[in-house]
Design goal:
The chain has helices at 35-49, 69-86, 95-101, 140-148, 173-185, 201-213; strands at 3-7, 12-18, 23-30, 59-63, 90-93, 109-117, 120-123, 126-127, 130-131, 136-138, 167-170, 189-191. With 234 residues, it is α/β, with parallel strands linked by helices. The model has no long low-confidence stretch (mean pLDDT 90).
Amino acid sequence: MRILGIETSTMTGSVALMDEERLIAEYTLNLKETHTSRLMPAIDKVLKDASLTIQDLDGIAVSLGPGSFTGLRIGIATAKGLAQGLNIPVVGIPTLDGLAFNLSHCKDLICPILDARKGEVYCALYKNGKRLTKYMACEPGELLKKIKSKVHPPNWQRQLGGPKSKVVFLGDGIEVYGDLVKKKLGRKAVFAPKARRLPNASSIAELGLKKLKRGKKSELSTLKPIYVRAPVEK
């Protein structure tokens, strides 16, 4: 099974090709350019460079958000259009799940944070491959306060362990709130390597491939973004 992964939830747009044995190709561009102008050319490029055509695809995995409202709409609309035209299955993967999967073998608590603008981050907490919280949009100070809290901690907070345990942060929220994270958590906070810090299509493709192999797919009529907070309509 050969899968196309699409990730457009942030300015870092990427597409990837993966089969059951390997990552075939991935194209990533972390520049301020709209996904409208670059997504289809990126798909064409990655297929051409891999000596494949669009008809060689067996499925599509697309990032669902939370993230950029416009970027998500473009990515999901493209995935749905291709899946319908090619008559192949499509599966949606939450962006924060894909981001946490970048560090799937990490034993510490993982906290992806994406810049949600308006002084907030999109976030969730993960450990040992499992999501411990709902997807959230909150002020970073509120998130860090929850992580630090020692008074009647919720179940996920107990996952922090002893004083030597770490919380690994990743996502573009580090660029905006990294200093605050370090100030509030000190040595307990660790930032993921830059190469693994941002959402990428290969993680979306791999998670999508696993779902499709289990017979799970999304319905075109109900596939839609995960906004967490309501989008602003213009």
